[in-house]
Give the backbone structure.
Amino acid sequence: MYAQMVKSEASNDDPHLLAAFQARIDAGEKIEPKEWMPEGYRKTLIRQIGQHAHSEIVGQLPEGNWITRAPTLERKAILLAKVQDEAGHGLYLYCAAETLGISRDEMTEALLSGKMKYSSIFNYPTLTWADMGAVGWLVDGAAIMNQVPLQRTSFGPYARAMVRICKEESFHQRQGYDIMMKMAQGTPAQKAMAQDALNRFWYPSLMMFGPSDKDSVHSAQSMAWKIKMNTNDELRQKFVDQTVPQAEYLGLTIPDPAVKWNEEKGGYDFSEPDWAEFFEVIKGNGPCNAERIEARQKAWDDGAWFRDGLMAHAAKQRAAKVAAE
Ligand code: FAQ
């Protein structure tokens, strides 16, 4: 079902309707679920919002891994709240995708069968407490860079979900930077852990923005429809420009000798990530892909009794209503 829905973005839509739709997008109007939209627009949104929702849910795993090992009660409470926020983001996003005519069950099945993707970043392991700092600072930092413009995206439910998500992501980024600051100002061993976390998360964070513009298959159409507001390379550059001074403030070194301010372009030069590695990770061959999907499959199987109970209860209520009429 999902494969059929997303396979072809080729448009069989009426050209007059398409032109009127594009005029609404160009005028900055929001598109709401029950309004007419091109099939390709609907499919692209299901793909992107669904992938985003899955990322939030799978994204709980690398940090959930550290909740029981947080160094203080306060750090534990903060991390717990952050991971719960990510669950909430997943739920808002699944709800937004459902308004486009796909069910949460279908999206989950597509994730588990590998038909739908989730962000490459969550296929990397979190090995030390400093990784909680690096994830908050860099991964949430990259997520915000991508998501702030999405508050202006053309699909109403997606844009509105993004407003609250961005507020929470800002707190997440701040708490990650706070962990990095504590460790960078700590003992030499703690500072070395912070540097090691930065070394391991730098390039995977750059990959979060997607392939370079020349290899991005969806950007042109998605930008015309205002499903995406910027190209992948534009956002990656903004992220580097924001993050390099933050690393300097921490006294840490970006693991890329090519990082250098370029006066002419008004931004930093930097090295591209290893794109061969990126494509392997999104094909399912990253360090933690199997483990992440296994964890989601177990949660899905363990929750079957609850879904069945809920459906049985809903069926009983419907039958009682019919009997009363
Ligand atoms: N990972 O043509 P493009 C978070 C795929 S939220 C995996 O450029 P597009 C919060 C892409 O799907 C993080 N796959 O694609 C948090 C396409 O494959 P397809 C998630 C990727 O869609 C923090 C192919 O490559 N955020 O982290 C990735 O125009 C901490 C070609 O690429 C969002 O989802 C990738 N990184 O642009 C949670 C934001 N990049 O589908 C917990 C919304 C590309 O044809 C802890 N999404 N691909 O088979 C977007 O803005 C876009 O979808 C992009 C990709 C920019 C990710």
Notes: The radius of gyration is 21 Å. The pocket of Phenylacetyl coenzyme A is lined by residues 47-48, 51-52, 55-56, 59, 86, 117, 119-120, 135, 139-140, 143, 146, 207-211, 216-219, 222, 228, 232, 282 (CB under 6 Å). The longest strand covers residues 260-262.
